[in-house]
């Protein structure tokens, strides 16, 4: 027989004040406070991942690593750090950039902006930062008689590692940002939980039992997404 615990969407307490949950489980919800907490967690996770990659770049023997590995570590560190702090239509409940900028020192703001610009101009978009974008052609001292006498080639100079000195400058900053987000996540979790209990979950709507969804990143699934 179907009961109130099988009906969605529904409130945690019904109109008569009865608690509708009969099975302890994780439930999907519609609630701005819980959404905010989730997005704080996303930001903290991204910066923690950036820190993990960055610490690998602190190795003084980085010259012994293949260039592709060194470049991959740096790009990953920069991209993961900047991810929570740019425009993101999927994360609208927590403004990570505004939150952080209100707490940064002048030097911290300088390093924060440095990493964001690296993401945009070096790692993610072709703005030529750290890369020789010279457009040139070689011509011989006398009129060329063959195409073999004309040299045309793309420039090859490109930064693949920012180096251990910059890694040492950035490491305390990225660790601090990670820890600030972690502390904020813990504080908001406690505050939201207390508020939900005090208000008898007013405004929170249960929409179903939370079940693990497949993390579809296969070719067809990605191509089916809107641009």
Overall 3D form: elongated
Mean pLDDT: 91
How does the major sheet shape up?
3 strands, antiparallel
Oligomer: single chain
Query: Rg from C-alpha positions?
Result: 25 Å
Strand order of the largest sheet: 1-3-2
What is the number of beta strands? 3
Q: Helix content range of the residues, please?
A: 40-55%
Q: Which structural class should the secondary elements be placed in?
A: mainly alpha
Q: What is the strand content?
A: under 5%
Unreliable runs:
none
Overview of the molecule:
The chain is mainly α and 227 residues long. Helix content is 47%, strand content 5%. The protein has a 3-stranded antiparallel sheet with strand order 1-3-2. The mean pLDDT is 91.
Can you give keywords for this protein?
6 helices; mainly alpha; elongated; 227 residues; three-stranded antiparallel β-sheet
What's the structural blueprint in terms of helices and strands?
Elements: E1 10-11, E2 27-30, H1 32-56, H2 67-82, H3 96-101, H4 106-124, H5 163-198, E3 205-209, H6 219-223
Antiparallel strand pairs: 1-3, 2-3
Helix pairs in contact: 1-2, 1-5, 2-4
Summarize this entry quickly:
The protein has 227 residues and is mainly alpha-helical. It is built from 6 helices and 3 strands. It is elongated, with a radius of gyration of 25 Å.
